[in-house]
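Quick start: what a row looks like.
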Amino acid sequence: MDMVFKTSTRVRQIPPSATVAIADKARALRAQGVAVIDLAGGEPDCATPAHIVEAGHRAMQEGFTHYVGSRGIPELLEAIAESLEARIGIRYDPRRQLIVTPGGKYALFSTLAGLLDGEDEVLVPEPAWVSYAPMVRLAGATPVPVRLDPEDGWRLTEARLTERLTSRSRIILLNTPNNPTGRVLTDQELEAVASIARRHDLLVISDEVYDRLVYDGRTHKSVLTLPGMAERTLLVNSFSKTYAMTGWRLGYLAGPEPAIPPILKVVQHSMTCAPSFVQRAGVVALRGPQEALGQMLETYAGRRRFVVEGLNAMPGISCSVPEGAFYAFFDVRETGMSSADFASRMLDRAAVALTPGAAFGEAGEGFVRLSFAAADENLHQALERMEAALKG
């Protein structure tokens, strides 16, 4: 007789990651010989810069392959503190206000797990990255969607936040530049978040993993820089997008000193520490040459232009120009298809993998996400295939 396992109700109620599921399906089709162009994921197509790879290799050759402190190695903590001070003008104490994590995703998860109780609610502006709401639920709390309006340019306002506030509200989860919309929050939007947080004594988790990927002369601004916000904001960031280090799994969080101990407990009892030799590579990433980032940004900017132009030339599709990150979040409502139907049609008929907007919350329905962090040739071919599939 087969044993029946009792599984976690909390986990059963959470859907699998939509982006991972699409990537898995694309890999399966490739294994069958289908020439799938995968534009569903969020991974830079360029290689990790050679000097970073060499630093990781050298650390392994030197035997730096054992446990290190759960906060992170001192050299990396100091390098992160230096980098944050240079970029946002706030000096964090490397020994008390920073934690290095195995990926930015784990920085976010450990923060939620360390700070939330079962009765707490987290305000999540949508469209939102697919893992935010599931992570909140895994932490035992409740995600509360703050639905943004595409006709208003996905603008985040004080009124929209206020109408979703309750006595259980604890955290606002912020993401700028935004995945999937590509929006960069304005000063007015950041002030709206800060005003609500200060007035209602809320914490803010600011996911800024795309902070170096902004276009058209824009500069990234963190909510941390507004009055009274550094002491109530947890900053999450990663090496994945900036330095093309997705597989290295290296991220970090920064925050007010009282918030760090409970988060560190989660790290200690789950992951122990981020890989030692990867942290050595992280030091070199932050302190070494930065030219590759500028080249990557220039490449993305060029791809962004022709992808948006190509999408807008297709029947039933409209696409605004993303301000940051490397996604085009385009409107398919005039095609008469749902976002899932559109994505399925493109995968089945055009062998192009895209992410349906519904994966990013109800506010994303009617839209589809395309990553332009892919080779120019693949992007051109994908657009041609998509247009043919729509006309055929």
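That is the whole record. The chain has a mean pLDDT of 95. The first strand starts at residue 37 and ends at 38.
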